[in-house]
Design brief:
single chain, 6-stranded antiparallel beta barrel, 7-stranded mixed β-sheet, 17 strands
Length: about 625
């Protein structure tokens, strides 16, 4: 018998439907006429054992016991899923061949692999395990995936990466949470102070931004704008460009901070003759925007509709599992396999049927256009999030689901529209010895941008030639003030998490990070943000995300390395290297354990007054209750 183990029941049903219409439903599995069986996990069926399973004395939290570092790692069935573990144990024993049908990412790989290992599969049977990669739950797509099974051994580096992540998060989160909860208790705070290698740097970003806003002092600066006329009475504006001689009157950003200098420029240029000294014109092409991965979709949905990261993820899961209108949503990839290009006509037709607002856009799409998104070299276990070929009226979707589907569909349609072509023009003008510049942008071909409602009111310059004489009919001083940084929103916080290299403080670490290296993964970022709200470290003020006093207190008490993204961004890069066979599990874990020892030394030396900002007086029973369960909870 072949046993297919899916990540979730919805995927198991899709696999069973693709294998045979005749099915017998069992308790935790589906039997097929061929004798094959499809069963499922319910996410992770197993979890890291809590510290007290390694030693009874760890039931009582004590700072001198830290760090706790297991020598032989243990996994335990989750209390709510013990029954399904038993079902799988029996089926795995009976199976001749096992197929890992976890979701196409590192966690999906691990959660099935770990149950296979937990149930004692070894030797030839383990070596013969197959891998099924499904990113579209419609029958035709699943059948195609079933015809392309791969050896599960190919994906062992992905599993090793997820295992390293799981154990490292347990070590860091459990030890740091125990340490700082006990320190907080000494200061009179009777609740858990949760610390995680991803959640805490995210909180640190918000606290740092809030501090920058609170400490900001607005400073004035000045600009000079000249209004110029051609001999044909055509009018346009140009902005003064301070020369090198003005440097001592400018700030680090090049803004003029000495008002008298700007006033002098106004007086010197008012009503004077002007000359065009240089003209630069360049035609440019802007390629179609890549289809979405989860983070880019969450960012756009937050900007357009004010949806939180979790709301977008929930909509995506419903569109994928319930409605089968989109492909696998927890993807970090923005490219598509070339083989999918031939399905473009079907997907476009489905969009035309499914969303009335996009019917015309779909009808005008040219399925012969091939954007840069179709690239096999950029696709691994999963690809970008795109619509499926399933036809279903979006009237059957919730309001939010419909909005998210429309975003995904419009981004996909853009692949079948021409590139956007425009020209940029920059004119340099001399007025009484001062340099002024005017810039303009003109659209030559709208292309894919016709799909997006954007302001296309471009600045238009008159036809000018070099050495042309002009008249400065007005010159005016513009008083401006520097602006404080803006508070984080769902969109900007997600953008910060996905492009974390901009926020890394260590220049050496920043050098090795890619622009795409981020805090957390596509699958975890939404839950991390929600967790910080749940633990009352963050709060919302309209669309803005701000840190609470307890959030600020925790960040202030922790060592800098725990509050900045440097360490965890480097972790994510190394975990990615493990998944690509560029780093071993041990090479990741060994230095991590040494770092953990140092963090515990720092924690034990933390003075009680470091927690002065904590809001005291939380009921003691809350601490006792949460303390009991916190060691079982995976810290992010």
């Amino acid at each position: 018998m072949n046993l297919y183990i899916a990540e979730k029941p919805s995927l198991a049903r899709a696999i069973a439907n693709a294998l045979s219409p005749n099915q017998t439903k069992g308790d935790g599995f589906i039997s097929l006429p061929s004798g094959d069986v499809v069963s499922w996990c319910i996410g992770h069926l197993l979890e890291q054992a809590p510290p007290e399973k390694y030693d009874d004395r760890y039931k009582k939290w004590a700072i001198n016991d830290l760090p706790i570092t297991p020598q032989q790692w243990q996994l335990l069935p989750k209390p709510k899923t013990k029954k399904q573990v038993s079902v799988l144990r029996k089926l795995i024993k009976q199976a001749n061949c096992i197929v890992n049908a976890g979701d196409p990412d590192r966690e999906g790989q691990l959660l099935v692999d770990e149950i296979i290992h937990y149930c004692g599969v070894k030797g030839t049977k383990l070596a013969s395990v197959q891998r099924l990669l499904v990113s579209d739950l419609n029958i035709s797509a699943v059948k195609k995936s079933l015809a392309n099974l791969r050896a599960n051994e190919e994906f062992m580096p992905l599993s090793a990466s997820a295992l390293a992540r799981s154990r490292a998060d347990w070590l860091y989160g459990m030890n740091m949470t125990r340490a700082y909860t006990l320190l907080g208790q000494r200061a009179g705070y009777n609740s858990v102070l949760s610390v995680g290698r991803v959640q805490t740097p995210v909180l640190g970003l918000v606290v740092k931004r809030d501090n920058e806003i609170n400490d900001f002092v607005a400073k004035p600066f000045y600009e000079v704008i000249a209004t110029l006329n051609t001999q044909q009475r055509e009018t346009f504006d140009a902005k003064w460009q301070p020369s090198g001689a003005c440097k001592k009157y400018q700030d680090d950003e090049g803004r003029v901070i000495y008002r008298k200098l700007a006033e002098t420029v106004v007086a010197k240029t008012q009503g004077k003759k002007a000359t065009v000294t240089d003209i630069k014109k360049q035609d440019k092409r802007l390629n179609q925007p890549l289809p979405y991965n989860l983070s880019s979709l969450q960012i756009d949905a937050a900007k357009r509709f004010g949806l939180s990261a979790k709301q977008v993820l929930d909509c995506c899961q419903a569109l994928y599992e319930k409605h089968k209108l989109i492909t696998y949503p927890r993807s970090d990839n923005r490219y598509l396999p070339k083989g999918h290009f031939t399905e473009g006509d079907k997907v476009i037709a489905a969009i035309a049927n499914n969303d009335r607002e996009l019917t015309n856009a779909a009808n005008n799409a040219d399925s012969g256009i091939k954007s840069n998104a179709w690239n096999d070299n950029k696709v691994d276990a999963h690809h970008a999030i795109i619509p499926t070929a399933k036809k279903l009226a979006t009237a059957s979707l919730s309001g939010s689901e419909s909005k998210v589907y429309q975003l995904i569909a419009r981004q996909y349609l853009a692949q079948f529209y021409p590139v956007h072509v425009f020209s940029e023009q920059q004119v340099t003008i001399d007025i009484a010895g001062g340099e002024f510049k005017a810039k303009a942008k003109a659209i030559n071909e709208l292309g894919w941008k016709v799909l997006f409602k954007q302001n296309t009111d471009d600045v238009v310059l008159p036809a000018l030639v070099k050495n042309q004489l002009l008249q400065c009919v007005d010159s005016r001083l513009i008083d401006k003030k520097t602006q404080p940084p803006k508070p984080f929103t769902d969109a900007t916080l997600l953008a910060a998490m996905t492009g974390i290299s901009r926020y890394v403080t260590n220049s050496e670490i920043r050098k090795v990070l890619k622009e795409t290296d981020g805090l957390g993964t596509e699958a975890t970022r939404a839950s991390i943000i929600e967790l910080l709200f749940k633990r009352q470290f963050l709060t919302r003020q309209a669309k803005n995300i701000r840190a609470t006093n307890n959030g600020k207190a925790l960040i202030n008490a922790l060592p800098l390395s725990a509050t900045t993204p440097d360490m965890t961004a480097l972790w994510e890069m190394k975990l990615n290297n493990i998944s690509h066979k560029e780093l071993s599990y041990n090479d990741f874990m060994t230095p991590l354990l040494a770092d953990l020892d140092n963090l515990m030394i720092q924690a034990k030396a933390t003075p009680t007054d470091a927690f002065a900002m904590l809001e005291k007086g939380a009921p003691a029973k809350r601490f006792t209750k949460r303390r009991k369960s916190s060691s079982k909870k995976k810290s992010s």
